[in-house]
Amino acid sequence: MSDSVAWVLQEMTAELKALNMWSAQPPSAEAMASTAPFCCDSMVFEQWLQFVLIPRMQALLDGDLPLPTDVNILPMAEYALANRHEDVRLLLFIIGRFDACFQSN
Q1: Measured between alpha carbons, how far is 69 from 78 in angstroms, rounded to an integer?
Q2: What mean pLDDT, rounded, does the chain reach?
Q3: Where do runs of H (alpha helix) occur along the chain?
Q4: Cα separation of 50 and 89, whole Å?
Q5: Distance (Å, rounded) from C-alpha 99 to C-alpha 91?
Q6: How far apart are CA 35 and CA 30, in angstroms?
Q7: Which of 24, 50, 68, 105 to pair with 97, CA 20 to 30 A apart?
Q8: In the chain, where are the structural domains located?
């Protein structure tokens, strides 16, 4: 599973960059300290992906630590990205694949 998660994180990063949704500036410390789900009160969804989800998942992988057993971010992604002008279908597909990495068989 770790290899699949690592691969999907790389794909997610590449697609965020391709869509010009990758930010050179990190959110403020206050924004990063948000306790709201997906930091929805302090940053846009793609910032959460870039600055929270991807680094935290990568840290788990790098530390050979246990991965979550239940992940379901696609519904939030669909909601948060619904009104974007960019074609986000591939990004949503990748996020769906990310969720699938954690589903029990």
Answers
A1: 21
A2: 94
A3: 2-18, 29-32, 45-48, 54-62, 74-80, 89-100
A4: 18
A5: 12
A6: 10
A7: 24
A8: 2-26+38-100
What the block records as the tokens of 55 is 């680094």
In this structure, whether the domain defined by 2-26+38-100 belongs to CATH 2.160.10.10 is answered with no
- The encoded tokens of residue 91 equal 């990004």
pTM for the model: 0.92
> How far is residue 12 CA from its own chain's centroid?
7
**Quick check: 91 and 97 in contact, CB under 8 A?**
no
pLDDT in tens, 77-94: 999 999 988 899 999 999
**pLDDT greater than 60 at residue 48:** yes
